[in-house]
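Saturday, quiet lab. Running sequence design on the structure tokens for the scaffold JK sent over.
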């Protein structure tokens, strides 16, 4: 058990692919920070929630040691450390998917090499920075291969002859293409996740954690949400409602002008494309408006 504390600490990546989006998410939750001189610790001014700016690889460990209660990392980093056989049980759990930093951990072979399935990897040397995730996947495929651990520039290993193929993070695929490599299997779908300590807190941190999670849920819901407004004739209402995108129940009201017409509003949690608006128009909707939602508390 860690000592009682009345402030919550969140660890986020100091500088890298997840830094900006992580800090942006917390700002949208209403958190404001005063940065310290060493730029590692940021004091929370709006709420008793402080920020630690560190390397992403250190975040699961900081939670394990009780230094922080929450952290934002790629699922690839969290799962790699969770699978480390040196640890009995990972001291953290995935609390929320955050929807940014999406990528996948994938096996890639040289363009000219054939690949018919995992069995083709038997006896090969695979370069990766994710030995535990790769080892776990190979075991589940019943394939025995040699894992060559590299901490960077994994994609050049086949050309250097230090490995036959690689297992690395891919987002656009441009890096693989530039290195004459071809993705053949994805072993983990990743994105930024909020991780937290397994334990419950018997002090102020329990309530702060709940408050922050509620705000994060609101921010995530709002990010994809749109308010759809339209008008319809009562005779067409049923067909318009049937054509609405999935979302919260629609609110239907009567308009003064033109008399007898109905106004419909609904919060939608998926993208509304032009084709969908045209379908609604065919169903009898007019005056269609799609508006962004800024805040939501339900
Ligand atoms: O310094 P620190 O240790 O904190 O940062 P880092 O260098 O370890 O991590 P960083 O900032 O590179 O990435 C942080 C997290 O972003 C990763 O752990 C992933 O969860 C996520 N992420 C999302 C990615 C990518 N997309 C990504 N494309 N991380 C790395 N890449 C690399 C990949 O390794 C490869 O070299 O980008 C290249 C491939 O990109 P494409 O677009 O060419 O396919
Ligand atoms: Zn890192």
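Result came back. Writing it out in full:
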């Amino acid at each position: 058990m860690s000592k009682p504390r009345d402030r919550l600490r969140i660890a986020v990546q100091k500088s890298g692919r997840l830094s900006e989006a992580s800090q942006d998410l917390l700002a949208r939750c209403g958190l404001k920070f005063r940065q310290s001189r060493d730029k590692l610790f940021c004091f929370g001014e709006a709420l008793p929630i402080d920020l630690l700016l560190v390397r992403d690889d250190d975040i699961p460990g900081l939670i394990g040691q009780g230094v922080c209660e929450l952290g934002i990392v790629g699922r690839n980093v969290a799962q790699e450390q969770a699978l480390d056989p040196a640890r009995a049980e990972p001291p953290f759990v995935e609390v929320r998917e955050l929807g940014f930093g999406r990528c996948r951990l994938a096996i890639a072979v040289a363009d000219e090499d054939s690949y018919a399935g995992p069995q083709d990897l038997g006896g090969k040397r695979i370069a990766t920075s994710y030995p535990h995730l790769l080892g776990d996947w190979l075991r589940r495929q019943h394939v025995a291969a040699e894992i060559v651990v590299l901490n960077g520039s994994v994609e050049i290993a086949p050309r250097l002859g230090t490995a036959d193929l690689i297992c690395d993070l891919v987002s656009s695929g441009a890096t693989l293409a530039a290195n004459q490599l071809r993705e053949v299997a994805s072993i983990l779908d990743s994105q930024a996740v909020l991780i937290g300590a397994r334990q419950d807190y018997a002090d102020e941190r329990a309530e702060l954690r709940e408050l922050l999670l509620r705000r994060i849920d609101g921010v995530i819901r709002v990010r994809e949400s749109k308010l759809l407004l339209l008008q319809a004739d009562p005779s067409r209402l049923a067909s318009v409602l049937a054509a609405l995108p999935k979302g919260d129940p629609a609110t239907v009201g009567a308009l003064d002008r033109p008399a007898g017409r109905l106004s419909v509003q609904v919060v939608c949690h998926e993208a509304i494309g032009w084709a969908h608006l045209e379908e609604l128009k065919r169903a009898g909707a007019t005056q269609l408006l799609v508006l962004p939602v800024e805040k939501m508390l339900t």
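Notes for JK: Residues 55-57 surround zinc ion (ligand 2) (CB under 6 Å). Residues 105 and 188 are 5 Å apart (CA to CA). Ask whether to fix the surface positions before the next round.
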